[in-house]
Specification:
This protein has 353 residues and is of the alpha/beta class. It folds into three domains: 2-48 and 60-108 and 187-266, Rossmann fold (3-Layer(aba) Sandwich); 120-184, DNA polymerase, domain 1 (Orthogonal Bundle), CATH 1.10.150.300; 288-351, Roll (Ubiquitin-like (UB roll)), CATH 3.10.20.30. It contains 15 helices and twelve strands. The strands form three sheets. A six-stranded mixed β-sheet has the order 2-4-1-5-6-7, with helices on both faces. The chain has a three-stranded mixed β-sheet with strand order 3-9-8, with helices on both faces. The protein has a three-stranded antiparallel β-sheet with strand order 11-10-12. Helix 4 runs antiparallel to helix 5. Bound molecules: guanosine-5'-diphosphate and magnesium ion.
Length: 353
């Protein structure tokens, strides 16, 4: 699960990268260099703490996202396919960090920045589509398969020219399979993070708010508001002060946590949980994953030797107070290999090797 942070320079990407990955990279460090940085970010999950209180494990392991901090897209570069986009092709989802605070660059123009970025991504996809089309039609004869591909490509072309993102097209499985190899940018799940100053964050206000929210709804893009610089200061406080700070702000979760959770959900991930004295852990799986395949996330031997999954929903386990009591009350079910895993299932796989 690779997540690319994109946006104009000085919009707060590295600040948010540091917050997400609990790193401390100098925000001035790129200095014209054009390389991406990557690190793992935990996906916060309060259920893990509750389980840890039951099991006192040696280790608590949250699900993780790999975050890529991409050098900024500069204004001068807009208007054609950008080299920065190459680094972005291989990620699974995009987070567009949008400057919503005033800075040495002037007043924020979040709507314009969003529109520019969307245009940039569309142009890049359009470029890919046209290249592919030329390659097919440039040959002597087109095969049946190529004709089928051309029909799909024409649809993509039309959609992109009409300002539609490709993730909104209703494509059948064949078409989806065909285009999955292209790494289209507007096919990737996208989230907009509006990075705000304290006051704007408290008020939930920023320029062109209504228009941006409307656009997000049209494109089905989640919007997360956060206050990057403020959150960075908050990070330096000890836990009790931080809690007070958050209460004062009227939030129960940091913006960082909301960004990670939003991406995770938008990518279609849920977590099953394992709990024991050794480790309490969240395992990411795509919605709709079946028990046997889920077992394979832990170890291929468990998938191969799969017998049954013992499952208790997290809430039921907490209510019962212990696994033993959950068992007594008949809350622990035995499921077979085709059981569709649910978010928050606490699982023990039975297997033999
Ligand atoms: N006022 C304000 N400044 C911020 C915020 N987030 C980041 N900054 C500052 O903006 C500058 C650029 O941030 P940086 O994370 O390096 O942006 P990047 O170029 O997109 O990676 C730094 O000086 C940050 O301290 C914010 O929410 N409010
Ligand atoms: Mg940066």
């Amino acid at each position: 699960m690779d997540i690319g942070l994109i946006g104009l320079p000085r919009s707060g990407k590295t600040t948010i990268f540091n917050l997400l990955t609990q790193q401390n990279v100098d925000t001035h460090a790129f200095g014209g260099r054009a390389e991406s940085r990557r690190a793992l970010a935990p996906v916060p999950d309060t259920r893990l703490d509750r389980l840890a209180a039951l099991y006192h494990p040696r280790k608590v392991t949250p699900a993780q996202l790999q975050v890529v901090d991409v050098p900024g897209l500069s204004r001068q570069e807009t208007g054609g396919p950008n080299r920065f986009l190459n680094d972005v092709r291989l990620v699974d989802a995009l987070v567009h960090v949008v400057r919503g605070f005033s800075s040495e660059l002037g007043e924020p123009t979040p709507l314009k920045d969003i529109e520019d970025m969307e245009l940039e991504l569309s142009l890049s996809d359009l470029d890919l589509v046209e290249k592919r089309k030329d390659r097919i039609t440039g040959g002597k004869k087109t095969t049946k398969e190529q004709q089928a591909e051309l029909a799909i490509i024409d649809r993509l072309h039309e959609a992109l020219e009409n300002g539609q993102r490709l993730d909104q097209l209703d494509l059948d499985d064949d078409a989806k399979k065909l285009i999955s190899g292209y790494q289209f940018l507007t096919l990737k799940p996208m989230i907009w993070v509006i990075n705000l100053d304290d006051e704007a964050f408290r008020a939930g206000e920023f320029p062109d708010r209504e228009k941006i929210l409307q656009l997000a709804e049209t494109h089905r893009i989640p919007v997360v508001l956060m206050a990057g610089a403020l959150e960075q200061e908050m990070q330096e406080l000890d836990p009790a002060d931080r809690l007070e700070f958050m209460q004062d702000l009227g939030i129960t979760e940091t913006g960082t946590a909301r960004v990670a959770t939003a991406i995770y959900g938008h990518l279609g991930y849920i977590s099953f949980l394992t709990a024991g004295e050794d480790e309490v852990r969240a395992w990411p799986i795509l919605q709709g994953t079946r028990a046997k395949e889920a077992a394979g996330k832990i170890h291929s031997d468990i998938e191969r030797g799969f017998i049954r999954a013992e499952i208790v929903p997290f809430e039921a386990l907490i209510e019962a107070g212990s696994m033993a009591r959950a068992r007594e009350r008949g809350l622990v079910r035995l499921e077979g290999k085709d059981y569709v895993m649910q978010d928050g299932d606490v699982v023990n796989f039975r297997f033999n090797v």
